[in-house]
Specification:
The chain has about 450 residues and is α+β, with helices and mostly antiparallel strands. The chain folds into three domains: about 1-10 and about 20-255, Spore Coat Polysaccharide Biosynthesis Protein SpsA, Chain A, CATH 3.90.550; about 260-320, no CATH class; about 340-440, Jelly Rolls. Helices cover about 20% and strands about 35% of the residues. It is built from ten helices and 30 strands. It has helices at about 40-50, 65-75, 90-100, 120-135, 180-185, 200-210, 215-220, 230-235, 260-265, 320-325, and strands at about 1-5, 30, 35-40, 55-60, 80, 110-115, 120, 140-145, 160, 165-175, 190-200, 245-250, 250-255, 270, 275, 280-285, 290-295, 300-305, 310-315, 335, 340-345, 350-355, 365, 370-380, 380-385, 390-395, 400, 405-410, 415-420, 430-435. The chain has a six-stranded antiparallel β-sheet with strand order 20-21-22-29-24-27. Strands 8-11-9-10-12 form a five-stranded mixed beta barrel. The longest helix is centred in the N-terminal third of the chain and has 16 residues, at about 120-135. The radius of gyration is 24 Å and the shape is globular.
Length: about 450
């Protein structure tokens, strides 16, 4: 199975756990069988590989998410990087060119596109294989998956099929309606449009060439910022007469808000939380190293992270976005391809960060023009390179880097470091990267 996962989204609706570089699909909130936690993207990737171990997965995403994807899924997953946001049609066109020109997928091969973050069971991905098989054999240019609606939702578009067969021709598409209109659609056998469709690769490339002036993947990538923002539905689906829809009646949830996310949680608490006996339907997600105590709460969600604290009625949590838009806060946690970091303290002229590097990984070799840095190793073993001089380090070692000097740190085991940044102008943009040829055999952090 060739599958493109669309990984977009901002970090607003699930604040304070999400931010500009940590969208909802990367939040580790679901328990694995071994008791550990996994994110939406990890869960979906695991399910795909369970259903089809040979599946080729390509994630279409922004540059800001690449490090988190490598961190959570490893470096074997394919990634089609969008230089900037241009909606789903340009993203899918770029991913299609990536499959042909980089992955060498033949144009008559079927491809499935779906969001990266649905809450589903394995049967959903079994259905995707059926959808892919249908795209390979059908006369239709597009085969959509229509979700059997469970209520007259105003959040989704609707697909009205010509009959009630498991696979049928499409009569008409309808945009997001009000509740009364949605009830009318459902009475006519309408299905939710979950943004899932399959096609032969050459079909989408043909449509892309008709709408965009480009030669190949590299050319499309370089002119990506000039493309018109438009969805795949508007650019392709609504203009295609040869479309089929396949019904899917299994578990499918869009976990786009705290309210819907807590419905899918397998426990009332992630992180340290206490509830007294008067609490009802209360969920806590706590990423801080302090306990959260809930008493007498009902239908509430409490979320605590270094970014902030949310205490909300579950229904009201759907309206969080305008308030988050007013916040202008420092990103306090992020996953990188080499590990992760958490900001501990921000003061005038200094910032203190806890850095965790995964075994066999390193930061880029880099320098800063406007700040000094001090590393204190608190656990693990590794090596530092400062202006070309390599030194082995372990717990208790302190490394000082004046501004302008080139430096990196390499983790031989998991390595935890307290980094103190000192300067009048501390900024994520103050970084100059360099090649370090002596470390070429190492697993390198390509994306920072």
């Amino acid at each position: 199975m060739n599958i493109i996962l669309l990984s977009g989204g901002s970090g607003q609706r699930l604040w304070p756990l999400s931010n500009d570089i940590r969208s909802k699909q990367f939040i580790k909130i679901f328990h694995r069988e071994d008791g550990g936690l996994e994110s939406m993207v990890q869960r979906v990737y695991r399910q795909i590989k369970t259903v089809d171990a040979d599946a080729s997965v390509t994630i279409a995403t922004s540059k800001a998410q690449v490090s988190a994807i490598y961190n959570q899924l490893g470096e074997g997953v394919g990634i089609s990087v969008e230089p900037c946001r241009r909606d789903t049609f340009p993203a899918i066109a770029l991913a299609a060119a990536y499959l042909r020109d980089v992955q060498k997928v033949e144009e008559d091969e079927p491809v499935v596109v779906c969001p990266v973050d649905p809450y589903v069971e394995n049967e959903y991905f079994t259905a995707l294989k059926t959808l892919e098989d249908r795209a390979a054999a059908s006369d239709a240019n597009l085969v959509l998956m229509g979700i059997e609606p469970t209520y007259p939702s105003e959040k989704y578009g609707y697909i009205i099929p010509k009959d009630r067969e498991s696979v049928s021709k499409v009569s008409v598409f309808k945009e997001k309606p009000d509740q009364k209109t949605a009830e009318e659609y459902i009475s006519k056998g309408a299905l939710w449009n979950g943004g899932v469709f399959a096609f032969q690769l050459g079909y989408v490339l043909k449509r892309a060439y008709e709408l965009i002036d480009f030669t190949d993947y590299k050319d499309l990538f370089e002119k990506y910022d000039t493309l018109t923002k438009i969805s795949f539905d508007y650019a392709v689906v609504e203009h295609e007469p040869a479309i089929e829809v396949m019904r899917f009646g299994g578990t499918w949830k869009d976990l786009g808000t705290w309210n819907t996310l807590t419905e899918a949680m397998d426990s009332y608490a992630v992180g340290e939380a206490l509830f007294n006996e008067t609490c009802e339907n209360v969920h806590v997600v706590n990423e801080l190293n302090v306990p959260v105590l809930c008493m007498g709460l009902k239908d509430m969600v409490v979320s605590a992270s270094p970014e902030g604290i949310l205490v909300s009625d579950k229904e009201q949590s759907s309206y969080i976005k305008p308030f988050v838009n007013t916040l202008d806060s420092q990103v306090m946690f992020a996953e990188k391809s080499w590990g992760s970091y958490r900001v501990l303290e921000v003061e005038e002229g200094s910032m203190t960060i806890k850095v965790t590097l995964n075994p066999g990984h390193r930061m880029n070799y880099h320098s800063h023009s406007y700040r000094d840095e001090v590393w204190t190793v608190i656990s693990g073993k590794g090596r530092t390179i400062v202006d070309g001089a390599e030194k082995r380090v372990g717990a208790g070692d302190v490394i000082t880097m004046p501004c302008g000097c080139r430096h990196t740190i390499i983790a031989d085991t998991e390595l935890k470091v307290i980094e103190v940044q000192l300067g009048k102008d501390i900024s994520v943009h103050d970084k100059q990267k360099y090649e370090l040829d002596s470390l070429m055999p190492m697993r390198r952090a390509v994306h920072e």
